[in-house]
Amino acid sequence: MNKKLFVLLVVLMSLSLLGIIFVQVYWIKTSINDKEEQFSRTVTDILDKVASRVEKREMKEYSDQLASLADSIGEPKGAQYKKFMFMERDLNSDEILFYSHGILEEDYNITSAFFDNKLGGSDTTTLKNFTSLRTKSVFKEEFGLDGKSYSLTPIEKVTNIGKLDKIERAAWEDVFMEYSKTQPIHKRVSKQELELLLSQELSNRNIDIDYEYGVYSQGYPTKVRSRKFKFSGSKMYKAPIFKDSEGQSNFSLLLTFPSMKRYIFSSVMGMAILSLVFTLVIMLAYSSAIYQLIKQKRISEIKSDFINNMTHEFKTPIATINLAVEAIRNPKSIEDKEKVLRYLGMIRDENKRMHAQVENVLRISKLEKNQLDISKDRVNMHDIITDAIAHIELIVQDRGGYVNAHLDAERSDVLANDMHMTNVIVNILDNAVKYSPETPKIDVFTEVVKNSIIIKVQDQGAGMSKVVLKKVFEKFYREHTGDIHNVKGHGLGLAYVKRIIDDHQGEVYAESEKGKGSTFFIKLPLI
Questions:
Q1: 45-90 pLDDT tens trace
Q2: Comparing C-alpha atoms, which of 159, 109, 102, 158 is closest to residue 130?
Q3: Residue 527 burial (10 A CB sphere; 0-12, 13-18, 19+)
Q4: DSSP letters of 170-186?
Q5: Residues 6 or more apart from 335 whose CB is under 8 A from it?
Q6: In sequence order, which residues have a C-beta less than 8 Å from that of residue 173 and are 6 or more positions away?
Q7: Which parts of the sequence belong to the Histidine kinase domain (predicted)?
Q8: What is the pLDDT of residues 108-146, one digit of tens each?
Q9: Which pLDDT tens digit goes with each residue over 7-57?
């Protein structure tokens, strides 16, 4: 993948993810704000309703007090009666409507001094009662055969007895409100009443949350408040209570909810959790996609490196074979049997070399597809190690180095495949030779730990960094040392080692320090 295209793709995906996260956070915040606003409107409505119910209850008590007083006095001192009436005839239905309205004014001759002058008027103000009597009657007019009326049949009669009209009631309520102002607040409303009304209204709106309340007079607290109520702190909701005829009031009913934030958040918790879960899923998918892109890019680069190395390693044998063939075709050389045999030997060796490289690649491919048939028998690991050392001993000696075997394990029989296990030891030894810039110095140790044999291959070569050490058993991975072709190989040898050892229920790992060499460990179960 093109590097610029890869970077652009990552940037676009990152911006998309950030956009999704921003939208989710904005939605949660907006939902909480909407819930809080809705909660505020509901609580304000509850306060207004509670204040109205308290005011109506107080007014009813005052009205009942006056009614009880009038009943206890008995007959009024004086009374006046006014009556108004009209009649209307419907010619279509032969019905006659009679309507009458009478007003009875009763004077009990009780002055305002009875109420300790708390009404604020003069002593001549007296207690009066007004009664309204409204009667509606409908008659059917019937006629005889001669066409003359001779009787009226009653069809309907409705009588309504009322007290005061709207104007008179407004005047009465104004007097009541002025009188109520003189009463202390704790006599007008109790804590028990407020708690009952607030609990009822909150329950009617399905709000189950702890609250604190208080009645304040012009910013100062009164006795009517809950035990834990505080004027400052949590958000307070406020509504006037005990308004006068002009809508003004010196008292305010305050309500607070100490755990309101938690209550609001819990109301959107379900959707918020789902939103966060989906966002996390998207983030995981995004991370996985980025990881796969990076991995594919790295694999692409490693495969390109592998192809370059493979091409490089095939070019030399092919060139050598071509030169040998041309030399054999030379008439002067064909007469020389010794030269012909030498050239044929070169062709055979180079052909084997290319065949070995191809077999190495095919073995890894079959291992990954689980198509490699690995039969296991009882083998002696000391014999396998000795055989593997023989494969590379000439190369090491040619470079002036050595391979020393320290086979100290008391037991060395394992269940393994002779050929593949030999290839494993050869690959590790060959790796030690390749990455020894100077004279190869290799030691092979064996020992028994519990019921396993430990094979240790130690060199004094270039060593590996910690980053390389983590990836050394990955397919196609090779550490670059300057020119990528200065060390022969395809990054398949150690990957093959790990797959074979894993198939034998063993372990393989390495320890290394840059510039001081590497040590490879193989652990196999003994039989």
A1: 999 999 999 988 888 887 776 666 556 655 555 555 555 566 667 7
A2: 102
A3: exposed
A4: HHHHHHHHHHHTTS-HH
A5: none
A6: 59, 245
A7: 309-527
A8: 565 544 444 444 444 444 556 666 666 778 777 776 666
A9: 777 788 788 878 888 888 888 888 888 888 888 899 999 999 999 999 888
Whole-angstrom distance, CA of residue 292 vs CA of residue 1: 12
Q: Report whether 514 contacts 467 (CB < 8 A).
A: no
Tens digit of each residue's pLDDT (9 = 90 or more) over 132-188? 666 778 777 776 666 565 566 777 665 655 555 565 566 666 666 766 777 788 888
What phi and psi, each to the nearest 5 degrees, are found at residue 177? -65, -40
Query: Distances in Å between the alpha carbon of 417 and those of 365, 366, 495, 500, 507?
Result: 18, 16, 17, 9, 16
Number of other CB atoms surrounding residue 457 within 10 Å: 22
**β-sheet bridge partners, residue 403:** 442
In what side-by-side order are the strands of the sheet with 220-225? 220-225, 212-217, 251-256, 236-241
Report the C-alpha dihedral over residues 465, 467, 468, 471, rounded to 10 degrees. Answer: 150
Distance separating alpha carbons of residues 318 and 325, to the nearest angstrom: 10
Residues 6+ apart with CB under 8 A from 386: 405, 407
Q: Is 0.70 topped by the overall pTM?
A: no
223 and 34 in contact (C-beta within 8 Å)? Answer: no
**Tokens found for residue 200:** 């009822």
